[in-house]
Amino acid sequence: MAAAIDGVFPATLQELVKKSKVLVVGAGGIGCEVLKNLVLSGFTDIEIIDLDTIDLSNLNRQFLFHREHVGKSKARVARESALSFNPDAKITAYHDSVTSTDYGVNFFKKFDLVLSALDNRAARNHVNRMCLNADVPLIESGTAGYNGQVELIKRGLTQCYECTPKDKQRSFPGCTIRNTPSEPIHCIVWAKHLFNQLFGESLEDEDISPDAADPDAKEKDGDGEPKKDDENEKEKGEESKEEKEAKEDTANGNIVRINTRQWARDCNYDAGKLFNKFFNEDITYLLRMSNLWKTRKAPVPVQWDTLQSEGSSGDQKDVAKQHHKVWSIEECAQVFANSLKELSGTFLKLEGDDTLAWDKDDQPAMDFVAACANVRSHIFDIERKSRFEIKSMAGNIIPAIATTNAITAGISVMRSFKVLEAKWEQCKAVYARLRPNARNHFLVPDASLPGPNPNCYVCASDPAITLKIDTKRLRIKELRDEVLVKTLNMLNPDVTVESSGSILISSEEGETECNEGKLLSELNIVDGVILKCDDFFQNYELSIIISHFDAERDENLFEVVADASQLKPKDEEQKKDTVEAKEDDQKTATKRSANGEEDSKDDGPSTSKRSRPTEVVEEDDDDCLVIEEDEDQAEVVIVATDKLSVQSPPKSGAKRKPCEVIEDEDITEILDSSDDEPAGPTKCKRSRLDESSSNPVEVISID
Ligand SMILES: Nc1ncnc2c1ncn2[C@@H]1O[C@H](COP(=O)(O)OP(=O)(O)OP(=O)(O)O)[C@@H](O)[C@H]1O
Ligand SMILES: [Zn+2]
């Protein structure tokens, strides 16, 4: 089925479509739709990049993928499926991360247009910077539940992706939820899915049982894709006893994908049986997928009987009411039992196919999720949370909706026509909403095309930020990893001190290693010092003005402030801090006296900014999107970390390995190379280009 655009588009547009070269970044929910639309609209020169492999949970909304594709490269399968619509199209697929150094400014310059369909801010920031540098128009799209958004980003004409601070968003792949949780939110999402499996409207991609098809559980081949089972076996030689057992169990049907809801009903909702199934047997099964635990801490199953002695004494209803207390594991088990009893009672009274809808304000539903999330956290050695905290996190989980993705992708491609025709005034951002606006429109365009923010620390001509930082407590390594890389999204920056020109951080490995462990103040990086940062790979330069402050014990060690003029004078700031600290102390004292006895009065807002840490590390993929609340955050603060805990960024197995390019007729495939191949921007440094981009703002006036 080739595209039939003759008679649909004017001849000039048809020509533009035919001869333009476009890049699609991301082959997920929106990306698949975008690719399909492009091919069906007559685009014939398309490249698509995605770092991920196909997960079972993608199939309900990523229609270029089918069951037999699970575990395969998204970009390659998307290419194959799209070619079936138009075999004459030339589609190049890259199974790789767009942030890899292979996709620098030169790569982006090849395109007339880039359409991004990503799910995480780090990659979006990167594509934004690359398109600005290469001066290629970018159509940026995203969805969150029923909300969708498409906007044009064009150097000098519009605001860029980083011109305005964004809400914090986080999202997670299905196998993280089912197999390898590492944060409380993963366990909370899992617990909500468990609720739905037992009592709610259960969806296939909300399965809570171990995912045996997890690509991470298998050995990887040279392509970074999981090997087939027989290949795996050949190379591994001896299989462990547990692995054999796991396979036999599956083959013998011992691990049967029985309907969890029916099974629980058949067990008469026996708390012990259900508890042991979810928190012992399933975990024991996960342990057998030994590849998962080579680089992670293995979970420890828990047994219902062992939790009964202490926890069963006292009035357990009161435990569930202690919303601000972190329940012990025994208390969680009891809350589990009580809430299960209440929920199953209500559920059994429902008629026909009716189900319960999870609601954070429904006491047993919330108790159930809080208890299950915490038991799972305990098993995976993850910090447990109070019911109050869990409620706020669980209330913000937004599922991905296929229709919103399709609408959004449709708008993206419609916008691409306007871009090709350079009808910029018709490229205003469009928002898809669940409810119509006053004019009864579900798709609402922006009133104007907002121009670049002159203070943007990315697209302004001479970008600068002020960094409020405790120079006496923060080390150079942390400045690089936490501030420059994680917060400001640089990849491998060089940093010099403006006044002396001395190199503080070098992108060359080992060159400034001796500085890494030193405090900023030890190297004379104190209040008023200006640092010049240069990220060669992104062709991005930024001045950082250091503004020292003495952080309180639990306070963030740094904050990025977009506009220095909005910083409060120091003495005023200090005064405020002291008052806040006092207030906090009083509140903590009050809380402490109430804790454990009568801490159940309300679910009101938390007491201070300090007690509401802001996380900056983002996950890459999503089954669910979580918007974090942060009402307290001042407008000028772009990102602030919690008290600094230095972690290496989350690794997703072979997904982010460096690559080599193999040319093959009209397809260029990117294959993962061996692990020990050196990666990093040093090799790009030599090929740095586009000197003109040091002054990237080119003003184009529009009516
Ligand atoms: N750095 C990156 N380079 C290339 N592709 C990326 C990068 N970061 C994210 N992506 C891809 O962007 C796509 C976003 O699609 P989407 O939001 O539908 O998420 P998804 O991962 O497909 O869904 P799910 O999380 O449910 O599996 C994903 O396929 C993801 O792999
Ligand atoms: Zn900008």
From TrEMBL:
<dbReference type="GO" id="GO:0005524">
    <property type="term" value="F:ATP binding"/>
</dbReference>
<dbReference type="GO" id="GO:0005737">
    <property type="term" value="C:cytoplasm"/>
</dbReference>
<feature type="active site" description="Glycyl thioester intermediate">
    <location>
        <position position="175"/>
    </location>
</feature>
<dbReference type="InterPro" id="IPR030661">
    <property type="entry name" value="Uba2"/>
</dbReference>
<dbReference type="GO" id="GO:0002225">
    <property type="term" value="P:positive regulation of antimicrobial peptide production"/>
</dbReference>
<feature type="binding site">
    <location>
        <begin position="26"/>
        <end position="31"/>
    </location>
    <ligand>
        <name>ATP</name>
    </ligand>
</feature>
<feature type="domain" description="Ubiquitin/SUMO-activating enzyme ubiquitin-like">
    <location>
        <begin position="467"/>
        <end position="552"/>
    </location>
</feature>
<keyword id="KW-0833">Ubl conjugation pathway</keyword>
<feature type="domain" description="THIF-type NAD/FAD binding fold">
    <location>
        <begin position="9"/>
        <end position="457"/>
    </location>
</feature>
<feature type="binding site">
    <location>
        <position position="74"/>
    </location>
    <ligand>
        <name>ATP</name>
    </ligand>
</feature>
<feature type="region of interest" description="Disordered">
    <location>
        <begin position="206"/>
        <end position="253"/>
    </location>
</feature>
<dbReference type="GO" id="GO:0140540">
    <property type="term" value="P:negative regulation melanotic encapsulation of foreign target"/>
</dbReference>
<dbReference type="InterPro" id="IPR035985">
    <property type="entry name" value="Ubiquitin-activating_enz"/>
</dbReference>
<keyword id="KW-0808">Transferase</keyword>
<feature type="region of interest" description="Disordered">
    <location>
        <begin position="568"/>
        <end position="624"/>
    </location>
</feature>
<dbReference type="InterPro" id="IPR045886">
    <property type="entry name" value="ThiF/MoeB/HesA"/>
</dbReference>
<dbReference type="GO" id="GO:0046872">
    <property type="term" value="F:metal ion binding"/>
</dbReference>
<feature type="compositionally biased region" description="Basic and acidic residues">
    <location>
        <begin position="568"/>
        <end position="588"/>
    </location>
</feature>
<feature type="binding site">
    <location>
        <begin position="58"/>
        <end position="61"/>
    </location>
    <ligand>
        <name>ATP</name>
    </ligand>
</feature>
<feature type="compositionally biased region" description="Acidic residues">
    <location>
        <begin position="661"/>
        <end position="678"/>
    </location>
</feature>
<protein>
    <recommendedName>
        <fullName>SUMO-activating enzyme subunit</fullName>
    </recommendedName>
</protein>
<keyword id="KW-0547">Nucleotide-binding</keyword>
<dbReference type="GO" id="GO:0046426">
    <property type="term" value="P:negative regulation of receptor signaling pathway via JAK-STAT"/>
</dbReference>
<feature type="binding site">
    <location>
        <position position="456"/>
    </location>
    <ligand>
        <name>Zn(2+)</name>
    </ligand>
</feature>
<feature type="binding site">
    <location>
        <position position="160"/>
    </location>
    <ligand>
        <name>Zn(2+)</name>
    </ligand>
</feature>
<feature type="region of interest" description="Disordered">
    <location>
        <begin position="642"/>
        <end position="703"/>
    </location>
</feature>
<keyword id="KW-0067">ATP-binding</keyword>
<dbReference type="GO" id="GO:0016925">
    <property type="term" value="P:protein sumoylation"/>
</dbReference>
<comment type="similarity">
    <text>Belongs to the ubiquitin-activating E1 family.</text>
</comment>
<feature type="binding site">
    <location>
        <position position="50"/>
    </location>
    <ligand>
        <name>ATP</name>
    </ligand>
</feature>
<comment type="pathway">
    <text>Protein modification; protein sumoylation.</text>
</comment>
<dbReference type="Pfam" id="PF14732">
    <property type="entry name" value="UAE_UbL"/>
</dbReference>
<dbReference type="InterPro" id="IPR000594">
    <property type="entry name" value="ThiF_NAD_FAD-bd"/>
</dbReference>
<feature type="compositionally biased region" description="Basic and acidic residues">
    <location>
        <begin position="215"/>
        <end position="250"/>
    </location>
</feature>
<dbReference type="InterPro" id="IPR028077">
    <property type="entry name" value="UAE_UbL_dom"/>
</dbReference>
<dbReference type="GO" id="GO:0006898">
    <property type="term" value="P:receptor-mediated endocytosis"/>
</dbReference>
<dbReference type="GO" id="GO:0033134">
    <property type="term" value="F:ubiquitin activating enzyme binding"/>
</dbReference>
<dbReference type="InterPro" id="IPR033127">
    <property type="entry name" value="UBQ-activ_enz_E1_Cys_AS"/>
</dbReference>
<dbReference type="GO" id="GO:0019948">
    <property type="term" value="F:SUMO activating enzyme activity"/>
</dbReference>
<dbReference type="Pfam" id="PF00899">
    <property type="entry name" value="ThiF"/>
</dbReference>
<dbReference type="InterPro" id="IPR023318">
    <property type="entry name" value="Ub_act_enz_dom_a_sf"/>
</dbReference>
<keyword id="KW-0479">Metal-binding</keyword>
